UniProtKB/TrEMBL annotation:
Protein name in UniProt: Magnesium transport protein CorA
Native organism: Pelomonas nitida
SUPFAM superfamilies according to UniProt: CorA soluble domain-like, Magnesium transport protein CorA, transmembrane region
Keyword hit for Calcium: no
Keyword Transport set for record: yes
Top-rank lineage group of the source organism: Bacteria
Amino acid sequence: MLINSAVYDDGRMVAEPALDAVSEALEATQTGFVWIALRDPTDDELYRLQHELALPPLAVEDARKGEQRPKLEEYGDMLFATMHLLEQGPEGLEVGEVHVFVGARFIVSVRLRSAQGFLGVRDRAEREPELLRQGPGFVFYALMDAVVDRYFPLIDAIEAELEQLEATMFQPRPDRQDVVQRLFGLKQRLATLRHAVTPALEVASKLHGGRVPAACKTMQDYFRDVYDHLVRIQASIDAARETIIAATQVNLTLVTIDESLVTKRLAAWAAIFAASTALAGIWGMNFEAMPELKWAYGYPMALGAIVLVSGALYWRFKRLKWL
């Protein structure tokens, strides 16, 4: 579906051509460029655009199929980039994609399986005509910057939930298994985020310093800023991952300690009842030779002995903190 199609000249929008008229609109201006945004396009829309802008067939095929890792490919003077769009869903992070074609006089963004739009990026670019005059390179930077900035709330949410779990981890709680499940859920979300960020770092590193594609040469400082953002996110991911591993080990240790305490309590009560059972068994044999058998106070004495021994054992285990 076509979201927007606009021709910009000298930082101002001068036309909004249909897909079939893009090449004609570019011919009408010698210095302008076209910015086209598509969302879940049909094969017909992609092939029409391929014909109008002479897009590489292999890149168009990647954009049509999707399921690509973040990457940057060069086809002569044209760039083809893929980035992941992440958003929090009911069962974890949902992964969409945006494919970007960058040429000398055009930029095309193809968004797949994502509700995240880029109208804010277009508004920002149109408010800065002095930068929009830089051409498709600035638009590519603005799109990439918007994608990367949307990663920050995701890592912040993971860190906040992790801090909440850490704060309550040492409190007595019966749902240790639930804590472990939540930790593994956080680890899966981190893995999804890392799969988006790590390849994007490689993409951003190719857009500043050294050999830089012609379309991005004038925007190297801006792409360096995006690279710095990605480095910060990568560092946060690594730190959160180490914290999750440590928290999981601590939680499993606490589970073992809880089980050990239960075992100690059971062993202590078993010892108390074993002593009572042994004494009751001795006096329950009813031998004639037992001197206390016919004594009037024999029965109370036996009960007193059982209570005394049991009380002594209870006091001892209480001091040892087994009970």
